[in-house]
Amino acid sequence: MKEDKVKVLLVDDHEMVRIGLAAVLGTEDGIEVVGEAGNGMEGLRLAREYKPDVVLMDLVMEGMDGIETTRRLTEEMPECRVIVLTSFLDDEKMYPVIEAGAFSYLLKTSRASEIADAIRAAARGQSVLESQVASKMMNRFRRPAQAESLPHEELTEREMEVLQLIAQGKSNQEIADELFIGIKTVKYHLTNLFGKLGVEDRTQAAIYAHRHGLAK
Protein backbone atom coordinates (compact mmCIF):
# COMPACT_ATOMS: atom_id res chain seq x y z
CA MET A 1 0.00 0.00 0.00
CA LYS A 2 1.39 3.41 -1.00
CA GLU A 3 2.06 5.79 1.85
CA ASP A 4 0.25 9.12 1.93
CA LYS A 5 2.39 12.07 0.97
CA VAL A 6 3.16 14.87 3.42
CA LYS A 7 1.00 17.82 2.34
CA VAL A 8 2.94 21.10 2.42
CA LEU A 9 1.73 24.69 2.20
CA LEU A 10 4.20 27.43 1.25
CA VAL A 11 3.75 30.88 2.82
CA ASP A 12 6.24 33.46 1.57
CA ASP A 13 5.81 36.94 0.11
CA HIS A 14 8.50 36.39 -2.53
CA GLU A 15 7.04 34.65 -5.57
CA MET A 16 10.41 33.42 -6.80
CA VAL A 17 11.07 31.75 -3.44
CA ARG A 18 7.73 29.95 -3.63
CA ILE A 19 8.38 28.89 -7.23
CA GLY A 20 11.82 27.55 -6.32
CA LEU A 21 10.58 25.68 -3.26
CA ALA A 22 7.65 24.18 -5.14
CA ALA A 23 9.94 22.99 -7.94
CA VAL A 24 12.50 21.45 -5.59
CA LEU A 25 10.00 19.83 -3.23
CA GLY A 26 8.05 18.50 -6.19
CA THR A 27 10.95 16.17 -6.93
CA GLU A 28 11.09 14.80 -3.37
CA ASP A 29 9.54 11.43 -2.57
CA GLY A 30 6.65 11.53 -0.12
CA ILE A 31 6.12 15.30 -0.30
CA GLU A 32 3.34 17.18 -2.08
CA VAL A 33 3.03 20.98 -2.26
CA VAL A 34 -0.72 21.61 -2.03
CA GLY A 35 -0.75 25.41 -2.11
CA GLU A 36 1.17 28.68 -2.08
CA ALA A 37 0.36 31.91 -0.24
CA GLY A 38 1.96 35.32 -0.53
CA ASN A 39 0.97 36.63 2.91
CA GLY A 40 -0.24 35.53 6.33
CA MET A 41 -3.97 36.02 5.78
CA GLU A 42 -3.89 34.05 2.55
CA GLY A 43 -1.84 31.40 4.30
CA LEU A 44 -4.50 30.98 7.00
CA ARG A 45 -7.23 30.76 4.38
CA LEU A 46 -5.42 28.11 2.36
CA ALA A 47 -4.50 26.16 5.51
CA ARG A 48 -8.20 25.94 6.40
CA GLU A 49 -8.97 24.79 2.88
CA TYR A 50 -6.17 22.29 2.23
CA LYS A 51 -5.47 21.05 5.79
CA PRO A 52 -1.70 20.69 5.22
CA ASP A 53 0.50 18.55 7.42
CA VAL A 54 3.33 21.09 7.29
CA VAL A 55 3.51 24.82 6.57
CA LEU A 56 6.78 26.41 5.44
CA MET A 57 6.46 29.90 6.93
CA ASP A 58 8.34 33.07 6.09
CA LEU A 59 8.69 35.58 8.93
CA VAL A 60 8.71 39.05 7.39
CA MET A 61 5.59 39.68 5.30
CA GLU A 62 3.34 42.67 4.78
CA GLY A 63 0.17 42.74 6.85
CA MET A 64 0.16 39.72 9.15
CA ASP A 65 3.74 38.59 9.74
CA GLY A 66 4.93 35.03 10.20
CA ILE A 67 4.87 35.24 14.00
CA GLU A 68 1.18 36.15 14.23
CA THR A 69 0.28 33.77 11.39
CA THR A 70 2.05 30.94 13.22
CA ARG A 71 0.27 31.77 16.47
CA ARG A 72 -3.16 31.78 14.87
CA LEU A 73 -2.47 28.71 12.76
CA THR A 74 -1.22 26.57 15.64
CA GLU A 75 -4.13 27.64 17.85
CA GLU A 76 -6.66 26.77 15.16
CA MET A 77 -4.92 23.69 13.71
CA PRO A 78 -2.60 22.25 16.41
CA GLU A 79 -2.00 19.13 14.32
CA CYS A 80 -0.35 21.25 11.60
CA ARG A 81 3.42 21.67 11.97
CA VAL A 82 4.91 25.07 11.16
CA ILE A 83 8.49 25.14 9.90
CA VAL A 84 9.94 28.64 9.83
CA LEU A 85 12.07 29.24 6.74
CA THR A 86 13.67 32.65 6.96
CA SER A 87 16.78 34.74 6.42
CA PHE A 88 16.60 36.16 9.95
CA LEU A 89 18.42 34.90 13.02
CA ASP A 90 17.83 37.85 15.38
CA ASP A 91 16.35 37.23 18.82
CA GLU A 92 13.31 39.50 18.44
CA LYS A 93 12.00 37.31 15.62
CA MET A 94 13.31 33.85 16.50
CA TYR A 95 12.13 33.49 20.10
CA PRO A 96 8.62 34.94 19.59
CA VAL A 97 7.83 32.64 16.67
CA ILE A 98 9.06 29.58 18.58
CA GLU A 99 6.91 30.65 21.53
CA ALA A 100 4.02 31.13 19.09
CA GLY A 101 4.21 27.44 18.19
CA ALA A 102 6.77 27.03 15.41
CA PHE A 103 7.84 23.40 15.28
CA SER A 104 11.16 23.87 13.49
CA TYR A 105 13.36 26.81 12.48
CA LEU A 106 15.50 26.80 9.33
CA LEU A 107 17.43 29.45 7.43
CA LYS A 108 16.95 30.02 3.71
CA THR A 109 20.59 29.11 3.25
CA SER A 110 19.65 25.50 4.09
CA ARG A 111 20.09 22.94 1.34
CA ALA A 112 17.00 21.61 -0.42
CA SER A 113 17.64 18.17 1.04
CA GLU A 114 17.76 19.64 4.57
CA ILE A 115 14.40 21.35 4.06
CA ALA A 116 12.88 18.15 2.71
CA ASP A 117 14.27 16.15 5.64
CA ALA A 118 12.86 18.71 8.09
CA ILE A 119 9.43 18.37 6.46
CA ARG A 120 9.50 14.59 6.79
CA ALA A 121 10.72 14.88 10.38
CA ALA A 122 7.92 17.32 11.25
CA ALA A 123 5.37 14.90 9.83
CA ARG A 124 6.79 12.29 12.24
CA GLY A 125 6.56 14.76 15.14
CA GLN A 126 10.29 15.56 15.26
CA SER A 127 11.59 19.13 15.51
CA VAL A 128 14.60 20.40 13.60
CA LEU A 129 16.60 23.50 14.50
CA GLU A 130 19.31 24.93 12.28
CA SER A 131 22.65 24.64 14.10
CA GLN A 132 23.02 28.39 14.70
CA VAL A 133 19.47 28.51 16.10
CA ALA A 134 20.18 25.61 18.44
CA SER A 135 23.31 27.37 19.73
CA LYS A 136 21.41 30.59 20.43
CA MET A 137 18.70 28.67 22.25
CA MET A 138 21.25 26.92 24.46
CA ASN A 139 22.94 30.23 25.30
CA ARG A 140 19.60 31.79 26.16
CA PHE A 141 18.83 29.09 28.71
CA ARG A 142 22.30 29.21 30.24
CA ARG A 143 22.18 32.94 31.07
CA PRO A 144 19.28 32.94 33.57
CA ALA A 145 20.95 30.32 35.75
CA GLN A 146 24.08 32.44 35.97
CA ALA A 147 22.09 35.59 36.76
CA GLU A 148 20.19 33.87 39.56
CA SER A 149 23.42 32.96 41.36
CA LEU A 150 24.70 36.56 41.25
CA PRO A 151 21.81 38.96 41.98
CA HIS A 152 24.07 42.04 42.01
CA GLU A 153 24.67 41.59 38.27
CA GLU A 154 21.13 42.92 37.82
CA LEU A 155 22.05 46.25 39.45
CA THR A 156 22.44 49.35 37.33
CA GLU A 157 25.72 51.28 37.47
CA ARG A 158 24.13 53.89 39.77
CA GLU A 159 22.63 51.24 42.07
CA MET A 160 26.05 49.62 42.35
CA GLU A 161 27.56 52.96 43.37
CA VAL A 162 24.90 53.37 46.07
CA LEU A 163 25.53 49.83 47.33
CA GLN A 164 29.27 50.47 47.61
CA LEU A 165 28.67 53.66 49.57
CA ILE A 166 26.27 51.81 51.89
CA ALA A 167 29.06 49.29 52.49
CA GLN A 168 31.28 52.20 53.54
CA GLY A 169 28.70 53.20 56.16
CA LYS A 170 27.55 56.36 54.35
CA SER A 171 24.21 57.93 55.28
CA ASN A 172 21.58 58.84 52.71
CA GLN A 173 22.66 62.49 52.84
CA GLU A 174 26.31 61.58 52.40
CA ILE A 175 25.45 59.35 49.43
CA ALA A 176 23.37 62.16 47.91
CA ASP A 177 26.21 64.64 48.33
CA GLU A 178 28.85 62.32 46.88
CA LEU A 179 26.78 61.32 43.84
CA PHE A 180 25.24 64.79 43.36
CA ILE A 181 21.68 63.47 43.53
CA GLY A 182 18.71 64.19 45.77
CA ILE A 183 17.67 62.31 48.90
CA LYS A 184 14.52 61.05 47.17
CA THR A 185 16.65 59.63 44.36
CA VAL A 186 18.87 57.86 46.87
CA LYS A 187 15.83 56.30 48.51
CA TYR A 188 14.54 55.24 45.08
CA HIS A 189 17.83 53.46 44.30
CA LEU A 190 17.84 51.84 47.75
CA THR A 191 14.37 50.40 47.20
CA ASN A 192 15.41 49.00 43.82
CA LEU A 193 18.68 47.46 44.95
CA PHE A 194 17.12 45.94 48.09
CA GLY A 195 14.57 44.21 45.88
CA LYS A 196 17.15 42.95 43.39
CA LEU A 197 19.48 41.65 46.10
CA GLY A 198 16.65 40.15 48.15
CA VAL A 199 17.65 42.02 51.33
CA GLU A 200 15.50 43.98 53.77
CA ASP A 201 17.69 46.83 54.97
CA ARG A 202 20.99 48.70 54.71
CA THR A 203 22.79 46.35 57.08
CA GLN A 204 21.93 43.29 55.02
CA ALA A 205 22.89 45.15 51.84
CA ALA A 206 26.28 46.08 53.34
CA ILE A 207 26.88 42.47 54.40
CA TYR A 208 26.02 41.30 50.89
CA ALA A 209 28.47 43.82 49.38
CA HIS A 210 31.34 42.72 51.63
CA ARG A 211 30.57 39.04 51.14
CA HIS A 212 30.77 39.38 47.35
CA GLY A 213 33.80 41.66 47.29
CA LEU A 214 31.85 44.68 46.09
CA ALA A 215 32.83 47.10 48.83
CA LYS A 216 35.54 49.65 48.08
Question: What's a concise summary of this model?
Answer:
The protein is α/β, with parallel strands linked by helices and 216 residues long.
Overview of this protein structure:
This protein has 216 residues and is α/β, with parallel strands linked by helices. It folds into two domains: 6-142, Rossmann fold (3-Layer(aba) Sandwich); 151-211, Arc Repressor Mutant, subunit A. 54% of the residues lie in helices and 12% in strands. The chain has ten helices and five strands; from the N terminus they run βαβαβαβαβαααααα. The protein has helices at 15-25, 40-50, 66-76, 91-99, 112-123, 131-149, 157-167, 172-179, 183-197, 202-211; strands at 6-11, 31-37, 54-57, 81-86, 104-107. The protein has a five-stranded parallel sheet, with helices on both faces. α4 (91-99) links the parallel β4 (81-86) and β5. α7 (157-167) packs across α10 (202-211). The protein starts with 5 loop residues before the first strand and ends in a 5-residue tail after the last helix. The model has no long low-confidence stretch (mean pLDDT 89).
Helix proportion range: 40-55%
Mean pLDDT: 89
Main sheet, how many strands, which sense, barrel? 5 strands, parallel
Number of helices: 10
Side-by-side strand order of the widest sheet: 2-1-3-4-5
CATH top level label of the largest domain: Alpha Beta
Instruction: Let me know the CATH homologous superfamily of the largest domain.
Output: Response regulator
What class, by secondary structure content? alpha/beta
Work out the number of β strands. Answer: 5
Q: Assign the CATH topology of the largest domain.
A: Rossmann fold
How far do the termini sit from each other?
78 Å
Portion in beta strands = 5-15%
Q: How large, in whole angstroms, is the Cα Rg?
A: 26 Å
Oligomerization state of this entry? single chain
Principal-axis shape equals elongated
